Amino acid sequence: MKEHGIIVGPVDTEKSNIQKEELNQLTFEVAKTANRIQIRKSIESIFDVRVASVRTLTVKGKIKRRGRILGKRKDWKKAVVTLMPGNRIKFFEGV
Question: Is residue 24 part of a domain?
């Protein structure tokens, strides 16, 4: 996989904003087939930072109802990336 194909996009929630400010952690939506090593290499090459650790989890899609019809949102993979002390990503500053 290419580096840009692994990272789908950032996850912007209240919890991820607190983690970014206090713990120097960023949260990304990643490809379901990506592993921790691929995620680490793609973050380091795209944003030119050093990564301390990567934690991944699979988020199960919710079952939603529209009248009588039941549907399901897609499952997706989330990665919480901890950066080395002193490293910041300018893309997320001031967001």
Answer: yes
92 within a domain of the structure (yes/no): no
User: What CATH number corresponds to the domain at position 72?
Assistant: 3.30.70.330
**Burial of 6: CB neighbours in 10 Å, binned 0-12, 13-18, 19+:** buried
Q: How many residues does the chain have?
A: 95
Assign 37 a pLDDT band (cuts: 50, 70, 90): very high
Range of the domain at 70: 3-85
Residue 59 included in any domain? yes
Q: What predicted TM-score, i.e. pTM, was given to this entire model?
A: 0.85
Q: What is the share, in percent, of the chain residues with pLDDT greater than 90?
A: 84
Mean pLDDT (whole number) for 19-48: 95
Q: Within 10 A of 33 (CB to CB), how many other CB atoms are there?
A: 10
